[in-house]
Amino acid sequence: MEMETQPILYRKRLIPSECFELKDDQILYRDDRIIVTKWNTIRPKKDLDHGYSCYFMKKGFKVSRFYGHENQHVCWYCDIIDTAYDAELNAYTFTDLLVDVILTPDGSIKVVDVDELADAMENKLISQSMLLRALRRLDYLLSIIYQDRFGDLQREILTRE
Question: What's the whole-model pTM score?
C-alpha cells in the first residue's frame, strides 16, 4: 500500500505582502473539509509559544488555539481566509483576508484588523469580490459564535490535541 504524501502548506499575507511555507507545521488530520495542524510560533512572541489550527477550507476561516510559554491557553484566534489547492504540487495556499476574531478565556469577543481590510481595498491589494467574501465569512463566523455553536469548531482541534 502506497503512503500518501503530506501536502505542502503556504501562508500568504497581503499586509505585509509575503508568502511562506509552513514547513514546520505538523498535519494531525486532513480530509476534504478541514486540515488540523500543530505548530510553534514562526516569530517569537512574549505571550505566545505554540498552538493548533483547523483550516475550515469550505467555510473560509481558520480557527486556532493559542498557548503561552507555560502551556496555558491564551485565546482562540480566528482568521478569515481564502484557500487555493494546487493538485500538481499537492500544495495548499491559505490567503489571510486580514479581518480576525479573537475569543479570550474570560468570554470576550473582539473583531480586529477591519481597518486593514479597508486599507487593502483602498490600496487595491484586494478585489471587491475578495472584500465581500471576507465580510460574508466574518458575518458567518460571528453568527456561529453568537448562536453559541463555536464549540462545534473547537471540537475539531480539541479532539486531536
Answer: 0.94
